[in-house]
Amino acid sequence: MSYLGIDLGTSGLRALLMGDDGAPIGSAERPCGVSNPRSGWSEQDPAEWIEALEGAVAELAANHLELAGLKGIGVAGHMHGATLLDDADQVIRPCILWNDTRSHEEAAGLDAMEGVRDISGNIVFPGFTAPKLEWVRRNEPENFDRVAKVLLPAAYMNLYLTGEHVTDMSDAAGTAWLDVGERDWSNRLLDASHMRRDQMPRLVEGCAQAGQLRTDLVRKWGIEGGVAVAGGAGDNAAAACGIGARAEGDGFLSLGTSGVLLAARDGYAPVPESALHTFCHALPGLWYQMGVMLSATDNLNWLAKIAGVSPAELTSGLGDEPAAPGRVRFLPYLSGERTPHNDAAIRGSFTGLGTDTGRDELTRAVLEGVAFGLRDSHEALKSAGGHIDRLIAIGGGTRSDYWLRVIANTLDVTVELPAGGEFGAALGAARLGRMATTGESPEDVVKSPEIGLTFEPDANLVPAFDEAYDRFRAAYPAIRGIQ
């Protein structure tokens, strides 16, 4: 038996074939284009998703005979996207993506309505789905009047695979239409943005069966029998399933272009004013909370470009062991900030510069500034009653051991680096497909990868990083006041 995990990302689709033993068999990737017809707009043609899927599956079929024994499929997708369908399931207009900011006025209006944060558990950000539909209602009324169903990108893939309108709880939690605590559509939230319950897909848990693969696709792909399709997940919930972040105390850190600190939660405890996302997990009876900083490795890449060297060269002069934070401070807000400030206008800065400041001091300040930004998310999580026993680190920034040691000292949490192999959203989606097929429990399927390196906080340095973080926090109001 085999299982297929589909990870639909903004820039492309990745399909991972997993064996019955849980090990990857093979993978295939296809690119997807993004259109930016105006400043702040970001759209995608859903037809590209289907073309990418068919191309990836054809490649897997050509290279891996195990695809014929496919038994389960799970889809992970980039969250919040608004795919509008008419009553014949035809796409009305290009999908408005998660990073589209045109609906900032509509988001602010919805967020200000009484009870909206209480029910949704979150600030209504411009990237969420509900304000996108409000924008369409105001600016494209002819399209709004035709809307029979609104599907998230992963749900649109589920429609293609099964012929049914169905989404999972984790993806639905990012719409601002879901009662995240009750795990059901909220009539109050739907009414706020002039939507109806019948325009929503059916809700299932991510590891539950959403439907069966269409018989024409079974024949086309050369599969020998029936195939269950799972509810699937939003991309971060799927990544949590791939990395093994399943229960209270489990978490992961994604140190990529942006930075994500995610913690699994056994209960529902939103703190929306902190700009901490509180979403349903892809696993029943669980939630997760996630802090997001908009620039993480982007900050280091920016400094490296100015210095005319690679990021690795930039950090090579720092050695292996961090010292206490220095005088130079960096605020990592090159693209604004999400958690905890929800401030799109704020920008970064260096302070504490002197004639003795060199490249190494600037580099250290950038690494520390990103770590302090992640600490903001950690503090928001703690304000919600959450805790992290350990963090598994993923993403391009994890190539720097120095940086991971700085983060461990700043958060006072053990940071672990996987030894290698698969542990991303595609693997998480394949695991959801397996559970939907076999009925196995998350405890038996959602497991952590083998750990290669462990970075413990240095008790001698943690107090110094605490003091530096306090100075970092005090700098935000001052810089915000002059911009």
SSE layout and pairing:
Blueprint: E1 2-8, E2 12-19, E3 24-31, E4 43-44, H1 46-63, E5 70-77, E6 83-85, E7 95-96, H2 104-111, H3 116-120, H4 129-139, H5 141-144, E8 149-151, H6 153-162, E9 166-168, H7 169-172, E10 178-179, E11 184-185, H8 187-192, E12 202-204, E13 209-212, H9 215-220, E14 228-230, E15 233-234, H10 235-243, E16 249-255, E17 259-265, E18 277-280, E19 287-293, H11 297-307, H12 311-316, E20 329-331, E21 349-351, H13 359-383, E22 388-394, H14 401-411, E23 414-418, H15 425-438, H16 442-445, E24 451-455, H17 462-481
Parallel strand pairs: 1-5, 5-14, 5-15, 9-12, 16-22, 22-23
Antiparallel strand pairs: 1-2, 2-3, 4-7, 6-8, 10-11, 13-14, 16-17, 17-19, 18-19, 20-21, 23-24
Would you summarize the structure shown here?
The chain contains 17 helices and 24 strands.
